[in-house]
Amino acid sequence: EVQLVESGGGLVQPGGSLRLSCAASGFTFNKFAMSWVRQAPGKGLEWVSGISSSGGSTYQPDSVKGRFTISRDNSKNTLFLQMNSLRAEDTAVYYCAKTPYDTSSYSYMDVWGKGTTVTVSS
Amino acid sequence: EIVMTQSPATLSVSPGERATLSCRASQSVSSKLAWYQQKAGQAPRLLIYGASARATGIPARFSGSGSGTEFTLTISSLQSEDFAVYYCQQYNYWPVFGQGTKLEIK
User: Fold this and answer.
1) In chain A, beta strands by DSSP E
2) In chain A, which residue's Cα lies nearest the Cα of B92?
């Protein structure tokens, strides 16, 4: 069974940092590009980072560029999201998602994890 | 940046009836359009990709159509488990989602 399990969420103060992890299983992790998508409370979905299968290419929208860094460890089938300089508006459920492609960041997401909650508040 | 606009925001339909959800892109996205279903407290689930291809395990009552800037998701005969929020997403450029349509029981 294809599975993605996120962890690392929690309560953090504004300006703080947090590192999310996503453990993948049931598929050949190093063959697929991956993404992080977030959902603020009561709001819609927002793509926040993407990474190629090899990890050699990464992509972020302007809303998080310079603050969020996506990475992966293919030897451990794990995806990461390092989040720095966190703001109240970063409060959301963060989903790890698999794409069906190896390199493209222009993709849909065919498998989603259950998400991990990040709350930025003093 | 591409803007995806879904309509209506809320759609009330009776079980067994047909539901038609719309998604419009601010510029052409070709057929690079996906639809997702999200139930309360759950992660999104992929329904449709390439504007009209059903994802693995998705029932035939779900169908997608359109290209360019206008897209439609049709659910032919609503089952109780279909009442949820539906999102469209373009992937002709950086991924952008619509704001969602809530499908509720009439």
Assistant:
1) 3-7, 10-12, 18-25, 34-39, 45-51, 58-59, 68-73, 78-83, 92-98, 111-112, 116-120
2) A106
